[in-house]
Amino acid sequence: MVFGSVAREYARYRPGYPPEAVLWAVGRGSGARVLDLGAGTGKLTAAVVAAGHEAIAVEPDSAMLAELASEVPTADAVAGSAEDIPLPDGSVDVVLAGQVLHWVDPDRAYPEISRVLRPGGVVAGLWNSDELRWIERLGGTDGTDEEFDWRGFFPTGLFTDESHRSFANPRPHTVDSLMSTIATHSRFLVLDDAEREKRLSSVRSALIRGLRDPDGEFEVRSRTYVIRATKR
Ligand SMILES: C[S@@+](CC[C@H](N)C(=O)[O-])C[C@H]1O[C@@H](n2cnc3c(N)ncnc32)[C@H](O)[C@@H]1O
Asked: Methyltransferase type domain location, by residue (predicted)?
């Protein structure tokens, strides 16, 4: 599994999700039964629980799931995947997936998501903007991310009323903390050790070159992008 080798670092450094994004994605303030699909170490699960919902976390990677169980002990943590969700038909009000839907097999995952949702239930994909792109733009622009436009994301045979919104999710960082975050991105995890070190070192140099004060703290103006739809 790609992320399991850095499960601890993932839990420590990766961004969470703003409460307003979770509120908009779920569609109500508390009391929903929410499946967090591909829950990883529980970043989104924690936000779901904090809002007062019942959370079921499904995750295929055992190291990530172990981290989740200690980070969010009140969630129901279950091994499984988007293509094979270990839940009964119509058993959840909402399915959320944080930075996951680009990993799934859409032909198998979307019918599964529809199956576990109750009639009229909601599915939402959430993505935090990419820190590496933020660094790439530091030299040229103001470092903000561009708008995200994935209209027509969910298959219309299964889902309707698709809508999109983004939410500010700023984070304070130092060069070291931002580099530790970037080192948990899958594009680096799939490289061999020497190549990973070489690429991370060149990203670090670009970051230092782009910052006014590389020894201080700075704000990464990330956003959380949400695509939401209703089960037909
Ligand atoms: C980028 S991480 C996101 C984790 C967490 N949702 C978050 O927001 O921090 C992607 C997660 O998706 C999981 N994953 C990969 N393929 C999956 C699949 N087919 N079904 C469900 N989860 C999957 C990975 O194991 C990993 O934990």
From this structure: 35-123
Within 42-179, strands assigned E span 54-59, 76-79, 92-98, 117-128, 159-168, 171-173
Q: What span, in angstroms and rounded, lies between the C-alpha atoms of 82 and 136?
A: 32
pLDDT reported for residue 62: 97
Which of ligand 1's atoms lies nearest the C-alpha of 10? 9
Atom of ligand 1 nearest to the CA of 103: 16
Q: Does domain 4-130+144-172+221-231 have CATH number 2.60.40.3580?
A: no
pLDDT score for 151: 76
C-alpha 55/C-alpha 76 separation (Å) is 6
Give the 3-state secondary structure of residue 179. helix
Structure tokens at 171: 């984070």
Q: Which atom of ligand 1 is nearest to the CA of 61?
A: 25
State the average pLDDT over residues 130-144.
74
Kindly list the distances between the CA atom of residue 115 and the CA atoms of 33, 73, 85, 94, 119, in Å, as whole numbers in the listed order: 15, 27, 9, 12, 9
CA of 194 to the centre of ligand 1 (A): 26
Phi, psi of 4 (to 5 degrees): -55, -35
Ligand 1: which of 103, 123, 189, 226 to mutate, most ligand atoms within 8 Å of CB?
103
Question: Mean pLDDT over residues 137-143, rounded?
Answer: 63
